[in-house]
C-alpha cells in the first residue's frame, strides 16, 4: 500500500503525504519515503524536492496507534535508528528539500520537516513536539534539531509543555523560513522551489555540503543517544499510559514508573 505520491513538475519533484485522517507516519510510510528519495537521487531531471501533506495536516507525527504493536525496547530502538538514517539522508540530500507545512507538523511530522533544508508554513499551522504528552520524548531527531533552530530555552519549553507554535511564531523563532496564508502556501512554495531549481545543481550540492559541515559535529552519537532514551522511555509504564490515554481520548496520569 502506498502512502506517498510523487509528482514530477518540470525540475520539481513533489512528494505528497497521503495517509488519512492525519498523515500519521507509520514505519512503512517512512520506509516508502526512503525509497522515493533514492529514486529522486537518480533522476537527473529533478533539481528540487517539495514535501507536503494531503488533507488537513502536513503530518500529526509518528503513528501512535502503531506504537502499541511494538513489543520490545530493542525493536523500538532499531526502528528509531532506521528512521534517523532516513531523515539524515534527507538532511544531507544533494538536491534542496523543502517542507510545505499546513495544518499541523507535530512530533515526527515536525522532525521530518526539520530534516528538510527549508520550511515554509501556513500562518495558522501548528508546529510542535508533543511527545511528552505520551510519556515519550521526541525520538526522530527533535531533541537535537529543535534547539539548533529556536535555542535551548525555547526548545526545552516546547518539549516540556508540549505547546506548539503557530506558523507565524515559527518564523519569528527561526524554525520556519516564511509564512503564507494557507490557501497561498502551495503556489508560493512552488514559486520559491522553481527559483531554486534555476540555480546550478552543482553549486547547490556544494552549498548543501558546506551548510552541513557546520552541523553538530557529533550528531551521529547524539542521535544514537536519543534513540536509546526514546526506546527506554517506550518501555515504561508511563509511556503505556500515555499511548493508551491518546487512543482512549483521555488525559494521561503519569506515575514516574
Ligand atoms: C518519535 C516520534 C514520536 C511521535 O511523533 S508521537 C506523535 C506526536 N504527535 C502527536 O502527539 C499529535 C497527536 N494528534 C493531535 O494532537 C491531534 O490529533 C491533531 C492536533 C493532529 C488533530 O486534532 P483534531 O483536529 O482534534 O483531530 P483528532 O480527532 O484528534 O484526530 C483525527 C484522527 O487522527 C488520529 N490521529 C491524530 N494524530 C495521530 C497520530 N500521531 N497517530 C495516530 N493517529 C493519529 C486521531 O486518533 C483521530 O482518529 P479517529 O478519528 O479514528 O479518532
From TrEMBL:
It holds the Pfam family ECH_1. Its EC number is 4.2.1.17. It comes from the Bacteria. CDD domains: crotonase-like. SUPFAM superfamilies: ClpP/crotonase. InterPro entries: ClpP/crotonase-like_dom_sf (IPR029045), Enoyl-CoA_hyd/isom_CS (IPR018376), Enoyl-CoA_hydra/iso (IPR001753). GO terms for molecular function: enoyl-CoA hydratase activity. Keywords: Lyase. The keyword Lyase applies. It is an enzyme of class 4 (lyase). PANTHER family: ENOYL-COA HYDRATASE-RELATED. Belongs to the enoyl-CoA hydratase/isomerase family. This is Enoyl-CoA hydratase. The lineage of its organism: Bacteria, Bacillati, Bacillota, Bacilli, Bacillales.
